[in-house]
Design brief:
Helix content is 57%, strand content 7%. It has 16 helices and five strands. It has a five-stranded parallel sheet, sandwiched between helices. The longest helix has 23 residues. It is elongated. It starts with a helix and ends with a helix.
Length: 335
Amino acid sequence: MTENQVIQETELKQKDLMNKFIHVIENHELSHSYLFNGEEGVGKLSLALFITMRMFCKNVTDDSMPCGKCDECRRIATQQHPDVVIIKPEGLSIKVDQIRYLKSEFSKSGLEGNKKFFIIQDAEKMTTGAANSLLKFIEEPGANIVSFLLTTNRNLILPTIISRTQVVDLESLSEDTFNKELEKVGVAPSQFKLLGKLTNRISTVKEWQEEDWIKNSTSVVGHWFDYLTKRDGDAFVIIQSNLMPLMTDNNKKQSLINMLLSIFEDVLNAKYIGNDDFCFPKQAANIKLLASQLSESQLVQIIETILNCNSKMAVNVSFQNILEATTLRILKILE
């Protein structure tokens, strides 16, 4: 990120916390260690970099913002400042040697001043050895050393580490902000509503895009629904031939169930709200048709049938069997 991108992203995603930390810094109340807990994509890193920029900036603005122009701001944003160390997983984990390196760097005096900051991304991925080594360090960090631990799951952090940090829970992105993030990675506006129901992770959306998974799966679910609308048994056939090849991991299986729920929620909305803001806009005609044909009782039965997929998955029933049984049950309800 550039220095201006850090400021813009923090203001967009975590403006309230940004203002709170400006107040904390102005009152000289910044603690020595923070744990930023929040979903992926909510701005944990940009917030940590923003605070660091504000502490190092040579030209703080009249409204107490980092200038975003000086050499200090630039090097922090681009992760090139010698007194700001950023650690992230090497492979699947953060290893003890990385924490030892961090400690050795911080045993030296600041190269350009008396402040030293460090940021640990994906802190929940520290090995046990790394976590224990870090614990010893943050117990007595030394003067003018500030640490930020960033995590998507505080429950995976050692309780002893949590007890020595100030935990800050970052709020999820608003629908509008998430849609702006989707737009940045090239998602069509027609997919915003569905993706908002499937995930809150931009990285997951990117993976699905690279594999064409969201495009292929929504297309197949759309065809499955169209067959159901016609009470056509090919809705059963499509499970093995078209849907199962797309189900390569449990996350995708869960997302598929949410897709099935979403398309029948579209039917529910068409029946009782009458709007055209559908998760599956290409199926709009059949969504409205089915909404006019089904009773409230039938719709509730179908949605309950799809919801029951979750309990069946929990006891390791074959996913293909779950989908086939669900399809047959829905066809029976539609008779």
